[in-house]
Design brief:
This protein has about 210 residues and is of the alpha+beta class. The protein is built from six helices and eight strands; from the N terminus they run αααββββαβββαβα.
Amino acid sequence: MIAKWFLNAILLKTALILTVLFTLFITLIRAQPYENSELRAFLIPSDDCISPCWQGIRPGETDVFGVMELLKVNKWISTVFFENYSTFSNGYIRWNWSSLRPSVVSGDGSNNLWFDENITQNFYVETQIHFGDVWLLLGKPDWFNIHRSYNRIRVDGVYQDQVLIVTFDIPCYQSVSRFWLAKTDIVWVKDLPAEGTRSDNLVASCR
């Protein structure tokens, strides 16, 4: 009985320490100035393309032919692949990055654009962008959807104005810095997912 109480006390103390450290990291991030033109150019659409938008592609609006044309003339991209899976005009478009790609993506990073009835529904890009860098540029996500499996946690940070999701997967019980250094996938969507938690205490979600 005493041993169980002692163990619970240790776990509670550890959780409180992690919570304080996570809050401290958030405070420090919010306090420092930040500028990254390359990341800004990658994540934030031009003035003539309303969010959600990436490189002229808009979920819910851009059709397959428009996507193919935009990707083929994009200097960041070398090869485009089209996969149509049914007579209902749905499937995927994937691409390979060129040597002119921005440093925020790796040459072998995966990407996937899903279309239905020939219209873009959503697409994601695997990036080298750290979660902390996204936070510095776009601010705190409007809400988080948390998915826990065994000793891992997947975090989906939802940005309502940009209509995009920043997602990453990380083992639980790691140092707080691992959250900020986690590499993310960026997902542009036609419709945002249901609202989750607005708490930024992600460490607590990992308990």
